[in-house]
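Final report, Chapter 2: Outcomes

The project's central promise was a pipeline that accepts a single protein chain and returns its three-dimensional structure in a standardized token representation, suitable for archiving and comparison. That pipeline is now operational. To close this chapter, we reproduce one record exactly as it appears in the project archive, with the input sequence first and the structure output second.
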Amino acid sequence: MSGFTKTKYHLHSLCCGENFEDKNWELSCPNNDGLSLIRAIYDDKQLVIDDGNPGLYRFSSWLPVSKTLKGSGAPVTYKSIGLAGELGLKNLYITFNGYWPEKGAFMKTGTFKECEAYAVCARVNGNLGGVMVVASAGNTARAFAKVCSENKIPLLICVPEDNLNALWFEAPVDSCVKLIACESGGDYFDAIHLSNLACQIEGFYPEGGSKNVARRDGMGATVLSAVSTIGTIPDYYFQAIGSGTGAIAAWEANYRFLEDGRFGSKKMKLMVSQNIPFIPIKEAWDADSRDLLPMNDEEARKQVEEICAKVLSNRKPSYSIRGGLYDAMKDAGGEVFAVTNEEAFEAGKLFARLEGNDLEPAASVAVASLIQAIFSKKVDADEIIMLNITGGGIDRFKGENKITYLRPLEVFPLNPDPKTVHQKIKDLF
């Protein structure tokens, strides 16, 4: 968008406290003092919403971006009537990420991963001319492929072969985007391994995952939408999690609102959920362990095969790292819920009937966790609840559009030879 001015901010290290400039896609502290996240610190201490900017970029005063990209949507928050009435809640607010034109929601991949992608791809990037590498269980890959395709940004995405049905689009993807996969039986962790091998090639650089401040602050736009709509910081934040990055982002956004000063002094309790039987974060949290409990690779892959919400299958979540989910939940309070496939399915049906749109499985897990919290009296009827619907309207969007799928150019074994991987990836570009 012409006339857009780069957001003014600097980066802050959580391990040593150093402040430094964002010059070259920094993902960690320049002093390497310890394993921790870095944060963006914005010059604007109060959120400035600019409706003159398109989509997500209306929140650009709290996004680490230097430009705007075409095609973005933004989270939409509204006060629930149907689901709230069914559950006996007086102040349930739904932050919807996906496709719902009547609500003003136009995320055409049907997921809040678009918030990540549009923020990351608009960040200052010292890797111009290189190829960004993204590992994904599905939704993130779809979002980044859309953004990079429409804005001609070179991208390599790595996805488990069993999750390729998530790579659907309304139009053919530009040739600047290449897809590779790890063979059937692999999971997100195997896709990450493949992406790490790709990043060993000169000219290929990691998107960064939770370490990328633009990814977290893009996801934090859900909280910016909620708080600016409600007028106050909620008491509770509900979301299903894989890596935990969205909940970390919510916690960080909460702190920005505390500094803003106009929306109260509360810390939202982080009410996060996982899909049984794959619940590594719940197991660690319930054991009061900063470290994830030991996990057998074969057993983990078997568990991932069983869950309905494949996007929640992260074996290396941002839990233990300084500034990660463990720290967030210890500071803000909260709980980790475990949801069965059947509970998620029933919750999705309930949402569709009462609210009027279909949900992506991970969002159904979040709704099921809210139901659990109410019946176990974890929340009171009059408290302000933010329910982050991380994906929805997919069935509707597919029904209204002709869908095409992106297919992998190479499928690699789960323990590939690095030299073979390097050569085949270089041949793709």
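Archive annotation: The radius of gyration is 20 Å.
This record, like all others produced under the grant, will remain available to the consortium after the project formally closes.
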